[in-house]
Design brief:
Radius of gyration of chain A: 20 Å
Shape of chain B: globular
Shape of chain A: globular
Strand content of chain A: 15-25%
Strand order of the largest sheet of chain B: 5-4-6-7-1-8-13-12-11
Oligomer: heterodimer
Helix content of chain A: 25-40%
Strand order of the largest sheet of chain A: 3-2-4-7-1-8-11-10-9
Helix content of chain B: 10-25%
Largest interface: A-B, 46 and 53 residues
Structural class of chain B: alpha+beta
Distance between the termini of chain A: 28 Å
Number of strands of chain A: 11
Number of helices of chain A: 14
Strand content of chain B: 25-35%
Number of helices of chain B: 14
Order of helices and strands of chain A: EHEHEHEHHHEEEHEHHHEHHHHEE
Largest sheet of chain B: 9 strands, mixed
Radius of gyration of chain B: 23 Å
Largest sheet of chain A: 9 strands, mixed
Chain lengths: ~400, ~475
């Protein structure tokens, strides 16, 4: 395996818009909102940015394709801009482009921007889109909750939980994230909820009820990255560096091969192994101080605790109910509310997770600040359990 | 008497949904002072069934264990396409060789018997499928009477005596006689949804009094069978009229075959053949059978029950089996919606554009129409869809797959959901991961299910159904779905 980019890239500044149903904003407004915060945080002139990466998933309704939406919205000085898309890992993919450019020495300072404007869809949930000319001929017209609900049935059957038992653990996931989101002024959903509310909510896709599903939100988040040396030259002492940035897409096994049993996300396991290796993490359960995972649905977060190597197989429901991933637990998960409550503007999500870990590591997370965390993990899962792109990034506090 | 042909196999399919006539009466009875004919149920297509999918299911039953026929003759008055060969589409979905001769018989309720009589005079082996899913106007007499269903027969040229190959037949076709008469008891103009029916008493007294009797006599004469010998008489329509026709024709009342009014209804062009199947499930070898098709004239076909019936019935008759697989539909409005007679607001998700890329559908026709996956020659992995590179992570060979038919395979539900957010014409939309018995996995739709019925581990088989409607281009496309065994 190649040496990787551990500690070769530092985050100079970050910004994140308020997430939510931003009827007042278009995607360009959201990008400006995030960028104004980030450029102030970085303390540099806008024109020092050498290149930029823009992550947008639903280009059809957000801002359109190509470099132009970002270049135009920020009136960038005609620097190279690359638009990337990798399903729900899009934001992390933008960060990967910027980080690799800096690590390669091609850029001194690079910008990664992720944005999504979902609430012009016209209805709740994600937009209905074609799956392509061939797959439309045979794949179900599934929804995101329906596709992720698949995990629950297989998980319950394999690990011998009744669906009621499993749903109770899933409910704990959502209750926890709402409690966290309530303390985050930028979060989409800031109401506290109870287990009973989750269990009694209207069914969306069995066994996922309304409160098992994350918010569908508008928002943007961005990062300005550079080398630790340049960051130091700009006066930074404590800085957050990228320890690992790994990606694993499916190759068809979960879709077509009998070896996948439907109870886990294969790509997360692969991306996590690589990321732990790149970051030099041997025991994630004791080395990670906080995690931001792709909790698009409560069941997703539950199985991810196992896929990331934090809970033993079949034990995630117990660990969750024991509070291991609560704000006060051993490994706080979604301390900012997660996709569930901070919200899930797809292209922005990976960068929003990075933003929270960045704030936490620098001690700037306000009411929800954890006790001196030094290493955090962000995980995205784009697509559906049958076919997806997983990204795992590890960020650490780098003191000089 | 040397038979014209033999029936060597048969299949039947009646859709699972049965609408109790009392449900119709409860919804539409306000039209009449005294609602009548409320006994029993009638069969009705699910939202994803039509005359083509019914035909496919019946034909699959008939084709089981049979080598590919040389011709496919599809009979119906309610086929989905007016100009696109429904028979060629059926042949593709049945994975029949492309060299097959395909024909359609339509335009009359005699389409089924006409196809059968025609097949009896052909060389080779003909798959005759008759299928109808007629839509009746709400509140009409036909709404109560009509049912949906299909019957399929494999007809092989020549009599049993001259044949040395294969098991004894289910029946021999001895002769047929025909009368064409433009007696307009009902009609449906091209492009229209509903029939227009004339006065029943006129039809009964003027047409049914004379035409069937003459045709039956001619057919029996050609078959050299005496009226007294006839053991079974299959005539669609109300029992009272069949009784009178039998009497006029000199046939004993005891010969009258069940018109399947109690739990199916009149399946139009399929009905004479479906009734024939009912007869064959009871008949003794050697008994003569008369089957009547009515519609601007009469087809009378004389058959003799064959020596193969006992063995065939041992596994349970196909008509009995399909009638037993049933689920009462308690909602009249849902029935109307399935028939396209109620403009339901399915929400904005229903506005998705379901345009079909026909160049892709053609390129992938074996995958989509015939449900063929691939099987790797190197590692044996079965996979769907077939692709250039094997999906087995330990193999991944290129161009190593042969086509592998999955339609007649079975599967197990690995996991599933009941989706209330997704667009479905019969929510919840059920889909899941299905493991094929041979290995391999497919995320696919499941159908004929209500909420709470399915469980992980359930066994499934596969049926061709309507995949999507494309209201913009007035098109529908088909694919295979899983149903619980």
């Amino acid at each position: 395996m190649a040496g990787g980019i551990c500690d070769k890239v530092a985050i100079l500044g970050m910004g994140c818009s308020r997430f939510g149903e931003r009827w007042d904003c278009g995607a360009d407004d959201l990008m400006v909102e995030a960028f104004v915060e980030a450029i102030a945080d970085a303390g540099i002139e806008r024109d020092r940015i050498d290149a930029a990466w823009l992550g947008v998933f639903f280009d059809e309704q957000s801002v359109g394709k190509s470099a132009l939406p970002l270049s135009m919205a920020l009136r960038l000085p005609n620097i190279p801009v690359t638009r990337v898309e990798n399903l729900c890992a899009t934001g992390t993919e933008a960060l990967r482009g910027a980080a690799y450019a800096v690590a390669a020495g091609a850029c001194d300072i690079a910008l990664a921007m992720g944005v999504e404007k979902l609430k012009d869809t016209g209805y709740s949930g994600l937009p209905e889109r074609t799956k392509g000319t061939f797959e439309d001929l045979y794949l179900p017209g599934s929804t995101a909750p329906g596709a992720f609900a698949q995990l629950a049935g297989a998980y319950a059957a394999k690990h011998r939980y009744s669906m009621d038992e499993l749903r109770r653990a899933m409910a704990h996931v959502s209750v926890k994230s709402h409690a966290n989101g309530a303390r985050n002024p930028k979060a989409h959903l800031r109401n506290r909820i109870t287990v009973e509310q989750v269990l009694d909510a209207p069914m969306v896709s069995y066994p996922l009820g309304v409160y098992d599903c994350c918010g569908v939100s508008d928002g943007a988040a961005c990062a300005i990255v550079t080398t630790p040396q340049i960051a130091r030259s700009l006066g930074r002492r404590d800085m957050v560096t990228i320890k690992a940035l790994q990606l694993a897409p499916s190759n068809g096994v979960e879709m077509s091969h009998a070896s996948w049993d439907g109870t886990y996300t294969l790509t997360t396991r692969l991306a996590a192994q690589r990321a732990y290796h790149e970051a030099g993490i041997r025991d994630p359960g004791s080395e990670l101080d906080l995690i931001e995972v792709h909790d698009c649905f409560s069941i997703t977060e539950l199985v991810l605790m196992e896929d990331l190597g934090l809970s033993d197989e079949g034990r995630a429901p117990h660990d969750i109910l024991d509070g291991r991933y609560d704000a006060e637990g051993a490994i706080p998960c979604q301390i900012d509310g997660g996709l569930k409550c901070f919200g899930h503007p797809i292209g922005a999500t990976g960068l929003r997770m990075t933003y929270e870990i960045y704030l936490q590591l620098l001690g700037r997370a306000g009411d929800r600040q954890l006790q001196q965390p030094t290493v955090g993990l962000a995980h995205n899962l784009g697509g559906i359990p049958n076919r997806n792109v997983a990204s795992v990034s590890v960020l650490g506090l780098h003191s000089i | 008497m040397v038979a014209l042909a033999q029936i060597v196999s048969a299949g039947a399919y009646v859709p699972r949904l049965r609408l109790p006539r009392a449900v119709i009466a409860a919804a539409m009875g306000w039209l009449e002072s005294a609602p009548s004919r409320v006994a029993g149920t009638r069969s009705a297509c699910n939202w994803d069934e039509d005359a083509l999918t019914l035909a496919i299911e019946a034909a699959r039953g008939a084709l089981r264990g049979i080598s590919a026929p040389s011709a496919l003759h599809l009979a119906s008055t309610s086929l989905p396409f007016a100009d696109r060969s429904n028979a060629a589409l059926a042949a593709a979905c049945l994975d029949l060789p492309s060299g097959i001769e395909t024909m359609e018989s339509t335009g009359s309720l005699r389409a089924g018997t006409a196809a059968l009589a025609n097949a009896a005079r052909r060389s080779g082996t003909t798959l005759v499928v008759a299928s109808d899913a007629r839509i009746a106007k709400p509140g009409s007499v036909q709404e109560m009477r009509v049912g949906h269903g299909a019957a399929a027969l494999i007809v092989r040229a020549g009599g049993a005596s001259g044949s040395t190959d294969g098991p004894p037949p289910l029946a021999e076709i001895l002769a047929s006689a025909h009368i064409a008469a433009d007696f307009v008891d009902h009609y449906r103009m091209a492009g229209e949804t509903f029939d227009y029916w004339l006065e029943e008493r006129w039809v009964r007294d003027e047409a049914l009094r004379h035409l069937p009797t003459r045709t039956i006599a001619a057919a029996l004469q050609a078959a050299r069978v005496n009226t007294a010998e006839v053991a079974h008489f299959a005539m669609p329509g109300p029992a009272s009229i069949a009784r009178r026709v039998a009497s006029d024709a000199g046939l004993a009342q005891a010969t009258l075959a069940d018109a399947l009014e109690a739990d199916c209804g009149d399946t139009g062009s399929a009905h004479p053949l479906l009734m024939l199947l009912g007869v064959l499930e009871r008949a003794q070898s050697g008994e003569p059978v008369v089957v009547l098709g009515l519609g601007q004239g009469v087809d009378a076909i004389v058959l003799r029950a064959g020596a193969g019936l006992a063995a065939w019935r041992a596994g349970g008759g196909p008509l009995t089996a399909t009638l037993a697989r049933r689920r009462d539909e308690p909602s009249y409005t849902r029935f109307l919606s399935h028939a396209g007679l109620l403009d339901v607001d399915f929400g904005m998700r229903a506005e998705r554009d379901n345009r079909t890329a026909h160049s892709v559908a053609w390129r992938k026709r074996e995958i989509i129409d015939a449900f063929r996956g691939g099987r790797c020659r190197d590692c044996g992995t079965v996979q769907f869809p077939r692709s250039r590179v094997c999906v087995n992570p330990d193999c991944r060979r290129t161009d190593s797959q042969d086509g592998y038919a999955l339609a007649d395979s079975t599967g197990t539900v690995k996991t599933f959901t009941e989706d209330w957010q997704a667009y479905s014409r019969r929510p919840p939309y059920v889909y899941g991961n299905v493991s094929f018995a041979e290995g391999g996995n497919l995320l696919m739709e499941l159908t004929d299910l209500d909420a709470g019925e399915l469980a992980v581990g359930d066994r499934v088989r596969f049926v061709l159904r309507i995949k999507d409607h494309d209201p913009l281009r007035h098109f529908r496309r088909y694919f295979w779905k899983a149903v619980r065994v």
